[in-house]
Amino acid sequence: MLALAVLLGYLIFALDTTALPGLQTHLNTVSAQTASPEYAAQLKTAQQLLAAGNMEKTKSLLDEMVAKYLYQAAPFMVMADYHIHLQEPIAAMHAFRQALDLNMDYLEKKTSLYQGKKIKNIVREAEAQIKLALAADAADPLMLENRKELYYMLRKLAGGCGD
Q1: Is residue 21 part of a domain?
Q2: For residue 26, is it within any domain?
Q3: 103 with 96: CB under 8 angstroms?
Q4: Scanning 30, 36, 69, 97, which has its CA 20 to 30 A from the CA of 142?
Q5: Alpha-carbon gap, residue 67 to 153, rounded angstroms
Q6: What letters, b where the CB count within 10 A reaches 16 and e where it falls short, cover 86-95?
Q7: What one-character-per-residue DSSP string does 64-113 give?
């Protein structure tokens, strides 16, 4: 029992629990952005514009949000929806990748953010377009880059907790 108390005391005093320089500032900024009424209002407005079919204003607002809220995944998810509405699965796949790099909860079934089925379907559509384009021109540099991203997304989807 005494040994446990000594070990606990050692752990409390010996372990340095200070944050890395700049990390706390970054975490505070991300938290503030998430809780910001301005951020929430802009996100809701972008979703409403998209639902109303106002594609030009939607794109403009999403570009602004992506630049302003670098560490938020939600604007990228709405950007993916924007590209889905335009029937651009490859562009949607790119937006999904950016969102998933920031927040894998979109592939976690146990969260309210889960959108795994939609993401998988779009990746399949992108795969079909990429294969078709590469069949026509196997040296197309843009499609070769898209194929790399496709493989990345397939690995990410395979590692996700969704179905």
Answers
A1: no
A2: no
A3: no
A4: 69
A5: 23
A6: eebbbbbbbb
A7: HHHHH-TT-SHHHHHHHHHHHHTT-HHHHHHHHHHHHHH-GGGG-TTSTT
The residues near 126 (Cβ < 8 Å, ≥ 6 apart) are 89, 90, 92, 93, 146, 150, 153
Cβ count near 46 (within 10 Å): 25
Structure-token pair, residue 81: 């929806």
C-beta of residue 150 within 8 angstroms of C-beta of residue 133: no
For residue 124, the one-letter residue type is: R
Is 18 contained in some domain?
no
Any domain includes 79: yes
Half-sphere exposure of 14 (CA within 13 A, CB side): 6
Count CB atoms within 10 A of the CB of residue 149.
16
38-61 pLDDT, tens digit each: 999 999 999 999 999 999 999 999
Domain with 101 in it:
37-159
If you ran DSSP here, which 8-state letter would residue 105 be given?
A: G
Dihedral pair phi/psi, residue 160, rounded to 5°: -70, 165
pTM, whole model, 2 decimals?
Answer: 0.76
CATH number for the domain spanning 125: value is: 1.25.40.10
Q: How many domains is the chain built from?
A: 1
Q: How does pLDDT run across 106-118, given as a tens digit for each residue?
A: 999 999 999 999 9
